[in-house]
Design brief:
Layout (H helix, E strand, L loop, with lengths): L10 H14 L6 H12 L6 H12 L5 H13 L3 E4 L4 E4 L9 E6 L5 E5 L1 H13 L9 E5 L6
Parallel strand pairs: 3-5
Antiparallel strand pairs: 1-2, 3-4
């Protein structure tokens, strides 16, 4: 396994890193974006835009449409401050937004908890194999479905 030397952030440090990453990509860190990020970072498992919209609506005491949340989440994914778990159409915060590598997600079919593994060797092998066929990958989607230790 080829490991990465990056720092996983939590709490205020994570929000600050996310804000910096978003602003460096040329976007503003608005109150609504901050609320969506805070909501997403509080959740124990990946969440859909609808789940996030419901939580944000409750905390803001006004309805926030899922389409609005989808646009924000798309911006977060483009800015690498959140990641879309493709197999569940759900989102999870990126705890190291300043690290430009590909994550391998392990999704528990029992409880839904999603963890990630950083292995640049595996990701690099996949990118190289694709390149050898003439394909130019722009984004890897690496997910492993199964059961976590608690559900096994």
């Amino acid at each position: 396994m080829v490991a990465n030397a990056h720092q996983h952030r939590l709490g205020p440090g994570l929000a600050a890193a996310a804000r910096t990453a978003l602003e460096q990509s040329g976007n503003q860190w608005t109150d609504l974006r901050a609320t969506v990020f805070a909501t997403l970072s509080r959740l124990a498992r990946p969440a859909s835009a609808y789940e996030i919209a419901d939580e944000v609506s409750k905390s803001a005491n006004r309805r926030v449409a899922p389409n609005t949340v989808y646009r924000i989440l798309d911006l977060f994914v483009a800015g690498k401050i959140a990641v879309r778990v493709e197999s569940t159409n759900a989102y999870i915060v990126n705890t190291h937004p300043d690290c430009p590598h590909d994550c391998i997600f392990m999704v528990c079919d029992g409880c839904g908890v999603t963890s990630h593994l950083d292995d640049d060797g595996i990701a690099g092998d996949i990118r190289n194999a694709a390149g050898q066929t003439g394909f130019a990958p722009t984004r890897l989607v690496l997910e492993v479905r199964g059961r976590c230790a608690a559900c096994a």
